[in-house]
Amino acid sequence: MLEDHMEKVEDFLIHRTSFTDSRAYKSCSSLLRTDVHSMLENEGKELLNSDTPTEKLKVHEDIIDIFNTADSLFQFFLPMTSKTPTAMKFWGAVHRIVCVSCMNPRKIMNSFLTAINRASVKPVQMMANQRRGILNYFQADLLSMSLIRSNPLQ
Questions:
Q1: In the prediction, which pLDDT does 132 show?
Q2: Which residue among 3, 59, 99, 104 is buried most deeply as judged by most CB within 10 Å?
Q3: What CA dihedral angle connects 111, 112, 115 and 119, to 10 degrees?
Q4: So what's the pLDDT on residue 74?
């Protein structure tokens, strides 16, 4: 069932999005979570076994934070071991972000967290607005009913 749904998601991303979005999706490499995790783990071991400056270790910790945030997001929607094409594109995109973040990890992390915050705040705001609209509708309805009761037909 999940596999069927993910096939539909991939079809949508390839064929029913804008050209730019479709191209971005197609250009992502396909990797497993374990591939990205192993790469980061190996880099961490190399850094610890060398005379690496503290700043480079801090950069690596920031990159690990990016991976952990992406991992938490991923597991909210799919099992950690998912090997669907869309899941593999997700980890390919995370790999790309991790590689680019070596250049300026703080900027990438801030952009990433800002995007996550926007993505999570907007639906909550929409639900709050809908709730407010429903409450206003019922309050107006209740008010009109109370006016009818207080002023029965004469």
A1: 60
A2: 59
A3: -170
A4: 92
- Assess contact for 36 and 98: CB atoms under 8 A: yes
**Which DSSP state fits 18?**
-
Both tokens of residue 100? 């680019």
pLDDT of residue 4: 85
Distance (Å, whole) CA 105 – CA 53: 16
CA 141 vs CA 136, 147, 149: distances in Å: 8, 10, 13
Q: Which residues of the chain have pLDDT under 70?
A: 101-154
What is the reported pLDDT for 2? 79
Question: Rounded CA gap, 132 and 64, in Å?
Answer: 40
Residues 102-113, buried b or exposed e (16+ Cβ, 10 A)? eeebeebbeebe
